[in-house]
Design goal:
- The chain is mainly beta.
- The strands form 3 sheets. The protein has a 21-stranded mixed beta sheet that branches. A 9-stranded parallel beta sheet has the order 5-8-10-12-17-20-23-26-29, with no helix packed on it. Strands 15-16 form a two-stranded antiparallel sheet.
- The protein contains 4 helices and 32 strands.
């Protein structure tokens, strides 16, 4: 019996050592390496970098174009930074990052990100960034930035100087945010802080919940904002009353040809027990606002409820009380249910009336 115990102990220890030894193994273009630092010399333009499941405690700086950085399920960057910026500092063009988790990313200026992108054209897919200072940041005009099937949670806070960290801080020609979530942005940061020419949020969820955030979206430099088929929720602890800010920073002038906002077919929940403001702006050439479901009291509602449906409470909308938040895959069916069964303030409640 004692021999069996010794054999079992040996197998357990050997398995543990093996897992530790290969926790950070990666391949570059099919060639195996034991760590990111060792693999870096092999990375070329167009390389495909595959990360095997494990916890990475070291970040990496990559300056090559056309990279694919793909993680196996279970790849986590934990308290891993490089250049006092981010877990992944990427300065090349046309980069794909997929299947990565980041947590506890912190740097001294309090703007530590999962991804710091300093090139042009970035696609991020299935990223989970949480409990860090920031999610994705760009420092230049980043061309086209696409974020898909990703989740950003408990990010943000006061940064060095006068600024704040945000879940996303993006300056680009276009930002596309698709089937993704930003939840519980903290420390008075915003979910999306944009200096981009165009931002499109489609089939996504942005929710304050109980966090002390600033705004769900802050279009600091004006531009074009399109939000469609999405859920927006404002909680009771938000530090600003507006869900959306448009050009509110001081000394900002319009630098884009198109300066407009389009809100179409969204569910918008006003759960703040104090003041709820849909949008504040100084300059706005056009606003398209139709097919939305507003739930809860909000300021200046008479300006916004035309071509939309308004319900003064979750109860009248026939949905569950807070903290229930609709999920992305139920947006369309829930809109139909609300407008069929709910008791609206500005119509019969029939679904056909919102079009």
């Amino acid at each position: 019996m004692s021999h069996l115990r010794v054999l079992l102990l040996f197998l357990i220890v050997n398995c543990f050592i093996s897992n530790v030894a290969f926790a950070n193994k990666i391949t570059v273009d099919g060639v195996m390496f034991k760590s990111l630092s060792v693999a870096k010399h092999a990375i070329r333009k167009g390389s495909r970098i595959y990360l095997f499941s494990g916890v990475f405690e070291q970040g990496i700086y990559l300056d090559k174009d056309d990279l694919e950085i793909i993680g196996e399920e279970g790849v986590v960057f934990d308290n891993a930074t490089v250049d006092e910026k981010a877990a992944l500092v990427l300065t090349g063009n046309n980069v794909l990052v997929e299947n990565i988790e980041c947590r506890n990313i912190q740097v001294s200026d309090k703007n530590g990100a999962c991804i710091r992108f300093e090139g042009s054209n970035l696609t991020v897919r299935n990223l989970y960034a949480h409990d860090s200072q920031s999610g994705v940041m760009t420092s230049n005009n980043a061309g086209i930035v696409r974020i898909e099937y990703s989740k950003f949670e408990r990010l943000g806070g006061k940064a060095a100087g006068e600024g704040f960290a945000h879940a996303l801080y993006i300056k680009a020609d276009e930002l596309f945010f698709y089937k993704s979530k930003i939840i519980s942005t903290k420390g008075e940061g915003s979910g999306i802080k944009s200096r981009s020419k165009k931002v499109v949020i489609d089939s996504s969820l942005l929710a304050s919940m109980d966090a002390i955030d600033s705004r769900l979206v802050d279009m600091a430099n004006y531009g074009e904002l399109i939000i469609k088929n999405s859920v927006l929720q404002q909680g009771s602890h938000t530090s600003n009353s507006q869900l959306l800010a448009y050009g509110l920073e001081k000394n900002i002038t319009s630098e884009f040809d198109v300066n407009r906002v389009e809100l179409v077919n969204n569910i918008i929940l006003f759960d703040n027990k104090k003041s709820n403001v849909l949008i504040s702006y100084r300059l706005l050439d056009e606003m398209v606002n139709s097919g939305n479901v507003f739930i809860g009291y909000f300021n200046l509602y008479l300006q916004f409820i035309k071509n939309n449906m308004w319900y003064t409470s979750r109860k009248r909308a026939r949905i569950l009380p807070y903290p229930y938040i609709p999920q992305i895959d139920e947006i369309e069916s829930l809109r139909l249910s609300i407008n069929t069964n709910g008791i609206s303030e500005n119509g019969s409640g029939s679904y056909k009336n919102i079009f």
